[in-house]
Amino acid sequence: MSITAGCDVGSLTAKAVIMEKGRILASAVIRSRARPEEASREVMDLALKEAALSINELEGITRTGYGRGRMPFEGKEISEITCHGRGARWLLPSVKTLIDIGGQDCKAIKLKSDGSIDRFITNDKCASGTGRFLDVMAKVLGVPVEDLATCSERADHPVTFSSSCAVWAQADVIRLLNEGHGVDDIGAGINNAMAARVAVLLNSIGLDGDICITGGVAKNLGVAKALETQLGCRVKKIRKADPQLAGAIGAALLAEERLK
Known about the structure:
With about 260 residues, the protein is α/β, with parallel strands linked by helices. The chain has two domains: about 5-80 and about 245-260, ATPase, nucleotide binding domain (Nucleotidyltransferase, domain 5, 2-Layer Sandwich); about 95-235, ATPase, nucleotide binding domain (Nucleotidyltransferase, domain 5). Helix content is about 40%, strand content about 20%. It contains eight helices and nine strands. The chain has helices at about 35-50, 80-90, 130-140, 150-155, 165-180, 185-205, 220-230, 245-260, and strands at about 5-10, 15-20, 25-30, 60-65, 75, 95-100, 105-110, 115-120, 210-215. The strands form two sheets. A five-stranded mixed sheet has the order 3-2-1-4-5. A four-stranded mixed sheet has the order 8-7-6-9. Helix 3 runs parallel beside helix 5 and helix 6 (about 185-205) crosses helix 7 (about 220-230). The longest helix has 23 residues, at about 185-205.
């Protein structure tokens, strides 16, 4: 029996996955806390409870994400780029190019045939291509961030944002609401603006083979479809497991590989 775990603490969410021989036994996702040690302990405890295990029964743990250096349990630290690449290849074996949209940054990653990292590029410090952008825009609109995913389907006349800056986009949302534009039309415009920023990053690294999105934004179908339009090609949907767990899955798989 080789049971391993991966814990991925980012700026918006903390994720934990427990795996045995390449199979997910349990997983958990929570909002991140101000202190990464608290978030990692809580999310790991939730996953362990689901798996009916104690942490002492784990044979290996990999820690990843921005909070990897402050987790209150032993484990090897590996960058989220490596973990997302490994997790994406497990989730979608044909993927060669992936976009990892995190809470405070966005990374375009090219994979080698063995699933290791070929090269990658990250966005600048602007929040407009990140999960934080969608989070902030949803709050200004007064809707749950999950509702943005379906705005594009219901929109009749999607708006166009005059600026890619996240700060100015907030002002644009308030102005558009005051002008009487519908929430769905504004939400669709937000998805389109997000996709445009992500497309720039992907085009700069070069498209190759099958493409997918990892991270929580992968569940926003409006962004995914807008990205397909921007790129002129298909973005494959991950169905094997929650794409938000990609980093934690990759971390657990890497822990298992170390045991071997």
